[in-house]
Amino acid sequence: MTLVLAYSPAGTYTAHPTLTEAVADLRQDLFDRTQDLPAGTPQRWADDDLTRALDRALDEYSYVSPLIQSVMTATLPSCRYYGFP
After folding, report:
1. CA angle centred on 19, ends 71 and 6, rounded to 5°
2. Which contiguous run of DSSP H or E holds residue 10?
């Protein structure tokens, strides 16, 4: 099992957030949390819209800076390592 770590703003490495945590963090950055809005005001962004924005941002980031991993593939008569983006 491989633990993938993310660099936090505090300068420490942490595990990647779940989608729910990422949406909550994005809401906080957009000042769209329920406690940040006046009473009775609905949230401006739907969860589906924020999830779509996060997906697009990850796609664009992955295009510019792909995560390169090593994979061992059996060949004949020996094994070789190939880059797998």
Report:
1. 55
2. none
> Higher confidence at residue 48 or residue 9?
48
- What CA–CA distance (Å, rounded) separates 53 from 34? 20
Write down the pTM of the prediction: 0.58
Given a contact cutoff of 8 angstroms between Cβ atoms, the answer to whether 51 and 19 are in contact is yes
Burial status of residue 50 (CB atoms within 10 A of its CB: 0-12, 13-18, 19 or more): buried
Phi, psi dihedral angles at 16 (to 5 degrees): -60, 145
Amino acid 70 reads S
What gap in Å lies between CA 43 and CA 31, rounded to an integer?
10
Please, are residues 59 and 65 in contact by the beta-carbon 8 Å criterion? no
